[in-house]
Amino acid sequence: MRSPTRTRLAAGALAAAPVLGVLAIPGTAAADPVESGPWTSYSPGYKVQEKGCGQVDGLTFTLSCSNSSGEQRAERRYDTYSSGTRQFEGYFRIVSMGGSRVSLKQTFKTTGPFFLLAVENGGRLYSVHGGDTIATGATVGTRVRVNTVHVVGSKLRVYINGSLKYTTSSESGSFYDKFGAYRTASGKGPIKVEWSDVQFWHK
Known about the structure:
8-stranded antiparallel sheet
């Protein structure tokens, strides 16, 4: 039988254990949606997009080259929507990264780019249009939760690990979600990133 003293010591050791990595997310279970509901879960269709040295293997996305020109893309492109409030959630983990300035998640307008979340070598997450820093600490091996809440014709809000980090205005129109790895105009590979626990809701 375990003594009360030993039990207290074990509990104290757990309480004193340091938490490493600001952006680290333990476990593999998907989280609930951010913001108040009611939210309805749904499963949009998608197409795999591979261009240049981009390769998709399930939820693993790789840019194998270091080209700083040409289209280098490995992504899932989801069905278009044009109304309501849509929420995307997914977790990414960068397996390896020799390049920089690679887009990981996009909310795209059918007439052109709208919001692109990209990562620099070193772990800074930023908005490609405008360059605003959204979060830091997205380093190799760190699991990061991303939620985007898009109110068509009003706002797009971006959450990192459940905390609101970025807001921008949104026009009306038709949009779609994409995630994976995409070389930005100023970026290059190589990079390998794994996504997991991807979910969608609307209201």
